[in-house]
Design a protein that fits this description.
Blueprint: H1 2-9, H2 46-62, H3 67-77, H4 79-91, H5 93-101, H6 112-117, H7 123-134, H8 150-161, H9 163-170, H10 176-190, H11 193-201, H12 208-228, H13 245-252
Length: 265
């Protein structure tokens, strides 16, 4: 599988020498060289996309923590779904503003001091707590490369960058069980093939006890909340830092998890 990916990517290597743009730079339609729609764009043919999708799917199933492979899978299989999500954002006032302003979530755009000063229970304070407790960083999200439309490239980038917001909203840690629960929520919310694949095959790695809890309690809860909630990509989270997390959950009709999922020690 790795040999397959190397073979597909070999013709694309010249593009990788470009410097990575700052995470706070919005994706915009402008000239970035011959055939390039945004700074990290790598133009690919339909055949290359198909091979990349097959290879990345195999690698992602083998190792769900290969976030680079998960990212490639999402970009090479989600074009139609991204158009649907983009249209949903265009029809929503808050979503349309996000598409217009192209905010980014990274350590360079977050005011960590301000977030720490917010009241207990606020979205910003709880999001920062999630990052600290789970020892994760918003800067680990891979840049979009294989989407051949700059606006759709931003949509999938935004999806990646608000992923940790969904963990915060759902009260899920970043272990395998917590990630699978969030993937079920995202699969129903977004319809992205990558999310559906992860939701269906991720449970293979769970223990019998965790699998029973997932199937009997957590999946029904995640699916019900995902169907009931409005599109989570339409939330301008950066302007809601001071909003109490409990109030935001009520606004989105997201209920408390049916059980506690233990996170990192």
């Amino acid at each position: 599988m790795a040999t397959l990916l190397r073979g597909v990517l070999r013709p694309l290597r010249p593009f990788r020498s470009r410097p990575r743009p700052a995470a706070d730079v919005p994706l915009r339609a402008m000239s970035h060289g011959a055939g390039l729609l945004y700074p990290e764009h790598i133009p690919t043919s339909p055949l290359q996309k198909a091979l990349l999708a097959a290879g990345s799917a195999g690698m992602a199933l083998y190792d769900p923590y290969r976030h680079d492979m998960v990212a490639v899978l999402g970009e090479t299989t989600g074009c139609r779904t991204l158009k649907v999500l983009r249209d949903q954002m265009r029809r929503d006032p808050e979503g349309a503003q996000i598409l217009q302003e192209r905010p980014r979530i990274s350590l360079s755009t977050l005011d960590l001091g301000k977030l720490r000063s917010l009241p207990e229970g606020s979205l910003g304070r709880e999001y920062l707590r999630f990052l600290d407790v789970n020892r994760v960083s918003p800067d680990t999200r891979a840049p979009t490369r294989f989407v051949d439309d700059e606006e759709l490239a931003y949509v999938i980038q935004r999806y990646r960058e608000v992923h940790d917001m969904l963990h915060t909203l759902l009260g899920m840690p970043t272990n395998i069980l917590g990630e699978i629960v969030v993937k079920w929520f995202e699969a129903v919310q977004t319809g992205l093939p990558m999310c559906i694949l992860s939701a269906l095959f991720g449970p293979i790695q769970l223990s019998a006890q965790s699998l029973q809890a997932l199937v009997s309690k957590l999946i029904p809860w995640a699916v019900q909340n995902a169907r009931r909630a409005p599109c989570v990509l339409n939330l301008y989270y950066e302007r809601r830092w001071e909003q109490p997390l409990k109030a935001l959950r009520q606004e989105l009709s997201i209920t408390e998890p049916p059980m506690h999922v233990q996170g990192p020690a």
